[in-house]
């Protein structure tokens, strides 16, 4: 009897004692890298993990993470680093995976752009004239290619976004663009994955930028960041309608273009920074979707000086800690007033460009949702062996060195690092104790 036969026999002996529903329930609670390893154990586990029901169960439990795209200086291909936050009781760790072009992602291209993510699928824009859209699941090494009309690919202000209908049955790509100039007559087309064609849906609200993770209730959300913020725009992938949502109060002036939309614990959030004193950053949360009165100040901190480019809350943990990503340009110290910081530098050396989004890895397979598309998928036989390159960089970053503790003698101060002239760029994920700074309503 071969080793493979022995594995299969032992695994089946264990599995046959449990129902498939119970096995799916157990397996769907495990970290992504563990599940990938289990896919190689036996055909029974491979079949269970490849099932639609497993993908649904796992997605509902998959802890959120961060995806960073980095383009090396002088390079032609971007590298993607994924960090999944795994909680165990009141502690957590960050599991890291590196997504490799040509294996986990489409083949290397010099100008591929990360647009957004939805249910673990990434939307990438590429091609010489931004005339190719890639939808991929880097965990499963699957992707499809969607072509854009070459005559429209160079239009002004075009933006693509992937979304899923509220029923979870249809995945679609939204394309917004301006036919004549950057601000007039924005149009929109929609592509339902599996149909092979774009459809016009008329006029639209132009999308200037999608923030980290703004997918909620089958919609994506964005805003125009000027000196005031009167409403938030959304697009419903079920009804294919554009809508407006009310902005929180007191966001009607003195904004500096620093506001960021996001999703925290299944609620729409808005982070704002004001020019006027007191110099503060506030995180608002819409506790009841679509109801203006449900906006509340959830977090507030008042640093003495803010010299970083962006400050965006990513993840709110069960323990009450919040992850904030800081994209730093200058070095400085500031007093965080009763907020305890500890963090870890995510380091991208000698890079020309970086982009980060909140990202929840999943086992949603394009085999199930993209029938009829131009697909680059692993065969069922290949699924029995996960490519080792998909596990590159798999060491747990929390096992190497201590969490950052660059504090002065006065507790509550933290140092920011300066970016060098050689494109050395630091991106720090800060873990912030929130029990002291949750705003009383």
Automatic annotation (TrEMBL):
<dbReference type="InterPro" id="IPR001810">
    <property type="entry name" value="F-box_dom"/>
</dbReference>
<dbReference type="InterPro" id="IPR036047">
    <property type="entry name" value="F-box-like_dom_sf"/>
</dbReference>
<protein>
    <recommendedName>
        <fullName>F-box domain-containing protein</fullName>
    </recommendedName>
</protein>
<dbReference type="Pfam" id="PF00646">
    <property type="entry name" value="F-box"/>
</dbReference>
<dbReference type="Pfam" id="PF07734">
    <property type="entry name" value="FBA_1"/>
</dbReference>
<dbReference type="InterPro" id="IPR050796">
    <property type="entry name" value="SCF_F-box_component"/>
</dbReference>
<dbReference type="InterPro" id="IPR017451">
    <property type="entry name" value="F-box-assoc_interact_dom"/>
</dbReference>
<feature type="domain" description="F-box">
    <location>
        <begin position="18"/>
        <end position="58"/>
    </location>
</feature>
<dbReference type="InterPro" id="IPR006527">
    <property type="entry name" value="F-box-assoc_dom_typ1"/>
</dbReference>
């Amino acid at each position: 009897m071969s080793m493979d036969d022995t594995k299969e026999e032992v695994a089946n002996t264990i599995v046959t004692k449990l129902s498939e529903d119970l096995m799916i329930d157990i397996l769907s609670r495990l970290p992504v890298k563990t599940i990938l390893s289990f896919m190689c154990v036996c055909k029974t586990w491979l079949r269970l993990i490849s099932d639609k029901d497993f993908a649904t169960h796992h997605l509902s439990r998959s802890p959120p993470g961060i995806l960073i795209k980095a383009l090396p200086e002088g390079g032609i291909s971007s590298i993607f680093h994924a960090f999944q936050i795994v909680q165990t009781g009141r502690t957590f760790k960050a599991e890291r995976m590196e997504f490799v072009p040509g294996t986990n992602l489409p083949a290397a291209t010099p100008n591929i752009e990360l647009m957004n993510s939805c249910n673990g699928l990434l939307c990438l824009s590429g091609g010489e004239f931004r005339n190719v859209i890639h939808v991929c699941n880097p965990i499963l090494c699957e992707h499809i290619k969607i072509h854009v009309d070459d005559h429209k690919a160079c239009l002004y202000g075009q933006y693509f976004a992937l979304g899923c209908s509220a029923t979870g049955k249809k995945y679609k790509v939204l394309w917004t663009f301006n036919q004549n100039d950057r601000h007039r007559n924005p149009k929109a087309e929609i592509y339902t994955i599996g149909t092979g064609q774009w459809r016009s849906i008329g006029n639209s609200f132009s999308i200037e930028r999608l923030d980290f993770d703004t997918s909620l209730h089958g919609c994506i959300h964005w805003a125009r960041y000027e000196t005031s913020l009167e409403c938030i725009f959304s697009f419903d992938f079920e009804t294919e309608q554009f809508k407006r949502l009310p902005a929180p109060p007191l966001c009607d002036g003195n904004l500096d273009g620093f506001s960021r939309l996001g999703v925290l614990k299944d609620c729409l959030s808005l982070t704002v920074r004001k020019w006027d004193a007191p110099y503060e950053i506030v995180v608002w949360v819409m506790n009841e979707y679509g109801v203006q009165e449900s906006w509340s100040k959830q977090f507030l901190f008042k640093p003495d000086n803010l010299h970083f480019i962006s400050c965006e809350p990513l993840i709110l943990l069960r323990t009450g800690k919040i992850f904030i990503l800081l994209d730093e340009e200058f070095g400085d110290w500031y007093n965080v007033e009763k907020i305890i910081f500890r963090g870890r530098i995510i380091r991208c050396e000698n890079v020309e460009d970086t982009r980060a989004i909140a990202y929840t890895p999943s086992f949603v397979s394009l085999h199930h949702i993209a029938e009829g598309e131009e697909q680059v998928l692993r065969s069922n036989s290949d699924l029995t062996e996960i490519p080792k390159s998909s596990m590159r960089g798999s060491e747990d970053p929390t096992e190497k060195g201590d969490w950052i503790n660059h504090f002065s003698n006065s507790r509550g101060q933290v140092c920011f690092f300066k970016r060098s002239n050689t494109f050395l760029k630091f991106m720090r994920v800060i873990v912030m104790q929130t029990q002291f700074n949750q705003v009383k309503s």
